[in-house]
Amino acid sequence: LIKAAANITGGGIYSNLKRVVPEFELDHNSFEKIPVLEKLKELTGEEEFYQVFNPGIGFCLAAESFSEDIKQICGEFSPRIIGRVL
Fold first, then answer.
1. Exposed, middle or buried, 14 (CB in 10 Å: 0-12/13-18/19+)?
2. pLDDT tens for residues 24-66?
């Protein structure tokens, strides 16, 4: 079911995802709007923010599809689609 996984807590979401998925597109609107993170994004600029910080996403899974099996296994963590592999 799962093709790759990335822990996002030790750096930016872009740099951590690039280690396991070379090309991807994120839907920034899918991230929860957390006031302190929104302020950091404002101060650093959007590109640098996603290179350096975790936008409230601590762990990512890459899969061919968001199946019912993945929803069931990860259900307690409120999984959601935040982008796609190119």
1. middle
2. 999 999 998 999 999 999 999 998 998 888 888 989 999 988 8
Do the beta carbons of residue 63 and residue 11 sit within 8 Å? no
The span from the CA of 68 to the CA of 45, in Å, is 36
How far apart CA 35 and CA 7 sit, in angstroms, is 22
Q: What is the pLDDT at residue 22?
A: 86
Q: State which H helix or E strand residue 46 sits in.
A: helix 46-52
Token readout for 78 is 């409120």
CA distance 16 to 53: 10
- What's the number of CA atoms in the CB half-sphere (13 Å) around residue 26? 22
Partner residues linked to 16 by β-bridges: none
Q: Specify the residue for token string 């950091």.
A: 40
25 strand-pairing partners: 84
